Task: structure prediction
Amino acid sequence: MKFLRKFLDKIKPSFDEGGKYAKLHSTFEGFESFLFVPKTVTSQGSHVRDCIDLKRTMSVVVLALVPCLLFGMWNTGYWHYRSIGGAGDLLTNFWFGFCKIFPIIAVSYIVGLGIEFTVAQIRKHEINEGFLVSGMLIPLIMPVDVPLWMVALATAFAVIIGKEVFGGTGMNIWNPALLARAFVFFSYPTQISGDKVWIAGLTGGQGVVDSFSGATPLSIAAGGTGEAAANMSGETLRSQLPDVFDMFMGFVPGSIGETSKLAILAGAAILILTGIGSWRIMLASTLGCLLMGWICNLLAANPYMELPPYYHLLMGGFAFGAIFMATDPVSASQTNTGKWIYGILFGILVVIIRVFNPAYPEGVMLIILLMNTFAPLIDHYVVSANVKRRLKRIKPNV
Amino acid sequence: MSQKEPLFSAKNIKLFTDPFNSGNPITVLVLGICSALAVTVKLQPAIVMSLSVIIVTGLASFIVSLLRNTIPNRIRIIVQLVVVATLVILVDQILKAFAYEVSKQLSVFVGLIITNCIIMGRIEAFALGNKPLPSLIDGLGNGAAYGMILVTVAFVRELFGAGTLLGYRIVPDAWYLKNGGFYENNGLIILPPMALILLGIIIWIHRIINKSLRDK
Result:
């Protein structure tokens, strides 16, 4: 440790203004504060001092994502071996998934951090840790077979157009990770929708055992709408879906990190206990989702609508989105009342997209982006309502 | 007044070149955005559209400038519209007669040149107060600068959206995923939002080069 400190102190002057590598100042600073606690303290104004800074916040979120990631690696292997008619043991499954997913993570971090570092040098900013979480979220919401150059392109798009254009970490309107996914979704729809992309090897045409289908619960459920479902009963649809335990544990195909609700709940526990994720948004979205699911039950126009409301929590990316992405502290509502409105609307709209619009089996991505857009507006009205209420208090007769 | 000005005087050249840089109708004045989003999916319609707009802006400015002393101020918009509409109809008919396929692709957007903000903007801002020849140059310059942006956007969109340029294949067939390659056309770039983002990127680059345009 001492040696490292000494070394850093020795090379530090060449990165200061006028030094040889002055252009790389923020790179040096980034690495220094990565290795040691930064010495710089605020010099003016009063600040609340707290040991939790951006770096710690981001590390906790990454830690909360680890259960999803590990499960996602195992699940990738599990489904791959099932699709070719074999069955791997725990480690084979995991190793297969690791080999598949690690490159995606590496590409996402290299491209994203590369752009962040470059922009920080050009703008003479400090390097922000904001991308640490986005870089982990991007692989977790991609299908496993997505080509790596698409990941690179999507990450670059999300970081440049979604974040740096607005001024970097903390200034973005939309969640960068979802923007990356939306980019792939609209640019290369065949790579990210349908029944084949969720299982490693299927798009490459590897042998598939008879009667194997890679359909996700959501695409099965979408079969419960329209003409195809004219004579179908709600019971039939439920029997076609994987059973509740499998969906909860995550033994279903889907994006890499979204399948296991158990792993997501573990992450949610970390986020709530450390106070980093907003429990209001998580609870509100769950309630909104259940509410709309229940209204669908009342309408019961097709088998999809007859599904019990809690199915919507278990299918697709709802849990992952509500816990990790809708709670993004930058793009979500900031006020407490706003968070309730934001969360409930998110839950309601997700079910509406799923049930009423069979063209989009899943609505979580687009709805979070939509609610991100509305978050400032919600906050504005919450704040101005508060101002009005307090003004009324001081002049009761007006 | 009677002093004759040469055609390529410094002032006239500046009238023509200014729209390409600090007076660009699209990236600085933000006029004519709608057609820049609508007709830039392919290069060919964009080029045809640009030519049509160049002709219409140039001639409309020229004609209005000839009439400028006889037009009563209160009805000038109507008169301008009559001039522009006549020219647009002429262009539309010519396209239908000699380039039917392209005119079908451009569909209503040729007719909508009438409402293109650049044309009315140049007439109001320049032609009504200047002599015919400078007005003609100003109109042609603005039309050409509009066309430049249009063609740039269309170039990127056709290259990455379809892998072709002017209909000729640029990205080899063997590269495509369906043929065992790795490449796939970008579907997002065909959609209007991406055209808007491309325009934004062009504005961004333009302001990096031309520092006088930056907001303080």
